[in-house]
Amino acid sequence: MNSNELFQKSLKYVPGGVHSPVRSFKGLHTTPRFINKAEGARIVDEDGKDYIDFCMSFGPLILGHRNPQVEEAVIAALKNGWSFGACEKYSLELAEFIVERIPFIDKIRFVNSGTEAVMTAIRLARGYTGKNKIIKFDGCYHGHTDSMLIKAGSGLAGTTTASSQGVSPAISNDTLICELGNLEQLKEVMEQHKNDLAAVFIEPLPANNGLLIQNAEFLKAVKELTDQYSCLLVFDEVISGFRVSFQGMYTHCHVEPDIVTYGKIIGGGFPVGAVAARSEIMDKLAPVGDVYQAGTLSANPVAMVAGLANLQQLTDNFYEKLERQSLKLVNIFSNWLTKNGFEDYSLIHFQSLFWAIPTHDKIINSSQIPGNIQERFKVLFEELLNKGIYFSPNAYEVGFVSSAHDDDVLSEIEQRLWQ
Ligand SMILES: Cc1ncc(COP(=O)(O)O)c(C=O)c1O
Predict the structure, then answer these.
(1) Whole-angstrom Cα distance, residue 300 to residue 90?
(2) 144, 238, 398: which to mutate for ligand 1, most atoms within 8 A of CB?
């Protein structure tokens, strides 16, 4: 069966034919490609067509598909068994490798996804501070836990409403929303709720609603405010962690969060998330403390081994090279866009993340994003898809460059673009 046939069949068994809505080609003229296999920078669909991939599983694959060291480690690990529900050394090796390299964390707990990491961070922040409300920023995504599926309400700053059906108002009322980059508004909301604020959550590099790059001064000011109001600062680094440097956005803004959440790259493409912090916070988690958190498959040995084999390759040189390749790529795309009817587009980029958007303005929050960019994106996405270049199928998703996007792949992209 080809991709379209598989999709039609999936519609019968799976809601919308997909297991995560971002995989759907909703609103596009074509149906999702069913991927059969992948290697390096390439994916191949069930129709036998290959694409140079910039979705990269939405971020985990910083080394490309089927990185040989990760593959070898996983195959070896499988031979020892793939789930014990008991202590094992693999998660300890990964924990040590991470904690020893990141200055603001003493302990880490592994979970199964970014959503689970954020869910744990919320409960941990509440348990540690004894307070209930959390602040998040419009335009930051923190997974699909109830407390984070919240959008700004109309009217006063800080009023909120659920962004999904099924979220109880009792939960949405405890999440307050602020605008990225707007310190005055944040101060106002914090002052208003000063007696009940557990934490401020932020993607220090917001990369889920386009790429809304914040300046370091803003992040520093947010940290000062969380200290002033005796609540915690949580950096959600599910995307930026290990991507923009091994130490994530800390390297770029020199702000130490109280809690950090990880996902994606930390598992090398296997289902892993993590929450980490100083000991005094982490020791609030069960079995030491009274904040409950658990998981049957948490710290799955195969995933732990994959994560370690992945992270061991992320040296300073690695990041320098990846940034150089990413800049070359941005130039290739920018040049092509300008000369092929997309001159209104620019590429906002940060290290190995990029976002194609039909404006040349600087954009730091959601309200500055031009309306209806999805309509314009459709044309670009489908043209690239036909040329064998695979972007995530949504105007608000960023592109991910991996170390597999080497010079040979870049030359091939140029050829595909211009042919
Ligand atoms: C910043 C951020 N937080 C949390 C999540 C949720 O992670 P997961 O999809 O693994 O549940 C994502 C996923 O894209 C994310 O980008």
Answers:
(1) 9
(2) 238
